[in-house]
C-alpha cells in the first residue's frame, strides 16, 4: 500500500476520532450542566433553610418579622436591624439566583418560586420601606427586574406573611 493511501486512511481515521471525541464532549458538557443546576437548586434550598431558621426557632423573631412587615415604624432599633439584616440576606440570595438563572446555571423555576412570595410581600409596608432604603445596594439589572417585573405582578389574594392574618383557608 503506497504511503499516500496510508496517509488518507490515517486522515479519515483521525476525522472519525475527532467526531467521536466531540460527541463525547457534548454529552459530558450536558451532564455537567445538569449537575451544576442540581447543585445550584440544592444550594438555594439550603440558603432559604438557613435564612428562615431563626423565624422557625424563635417566636420573638417571628413576631418582629410580622410586625416589621405590617408597620416598620413600630420596630425598636434592634428589631429594625434584625428586619433589615433578614431582607439584605434574602435579597442578596435572590440576586445571586437571578444571575445564576440568567447564565443557565440554575432552573428558572427555583427563582420563580421565591419571586412569587416577593410579589406578595411587596405589598407590605415593611418590605416597601426596606426596598426604598436599600435597593441602591443591589445590581442595577436586578433592581430593574424586581421593580419592573416582580413587584408589578398581581399578588395572590390569599397570601399572608408566614400564614398570619385572616385569609380564607384554601380549599
Helix content: over 70%
Number of domains: 1
| Beta-strand content | under 5%
End-to-end separation: 82 Å
What does this structure look like?
The chain is mainly alpha-helical. The protein has one domain. It contains 6 helices and no strands. The protein is elongated, with a radius of gyration of 25 Å.
Attribute tags:
disordered C terminus, elongated, 171 residues, mainly alpha
Question: What's a quick, concise take on this entry?
Answer:
With 171 residues, the chain is an all-alpha fold.
Topology:
Layout: H1 3-57, H2 59-70, H3 77-102, H4 108-121, H5 125-134, H6 140-148
Helix pairs in contact: 1-2, 1-3, 2-3, 3-4
Amino acid at each position: 500500500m503506497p504511503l499516500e493511501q496510508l496517509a488518507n486512511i490515517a486522515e479519515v481515521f483521525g476525522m472519525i476520532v475527532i467526531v467521536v471525541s466531540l460527541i463525547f464532549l457534548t454529552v459530558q458538557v450536558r451532564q455537567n450542566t445538569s449537575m451544576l443546576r442540581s447543585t445550584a437548586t440544592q444550594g438555594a434550598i439550603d440558603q432559604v433553610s438557613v435564612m428562615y431558621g431563626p423565624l422557625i426557632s424563635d417566636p420573638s423573631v417571628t413576631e418582629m418579622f410580622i410586625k416589621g412587615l405590617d408597620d416598620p415604624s413600630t420596630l425598636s432599633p434592634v428589631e429594625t436591624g434584625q428586619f433589615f439584616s433578614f431582607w439584605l440576606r434574602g435579597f442578596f440570595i435572590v440576586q445571586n439566583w437571578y444571575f445564576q438563572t440568567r447564565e443557565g446555571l440554575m432552573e428558572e423555576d427555583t427563582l420563580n418560586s421565591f419571586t412569587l412570595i416577593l410579589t406578595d410581600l411587596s405589598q407590605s409596608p415593611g418590605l416597601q420601606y426596606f426596598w426604598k432604603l436599600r435597593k441602591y445596594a443591589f445590581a442595577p439589572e436586578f433592581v430593574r427586574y424586581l421593580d419592573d417585573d416582580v413587584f408589578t405582578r398581581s399578588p395572590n389574594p390569599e397570601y399572608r406573611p408566614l400564614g398570619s392574618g385572616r385569609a380564607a383557608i384554601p380549599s
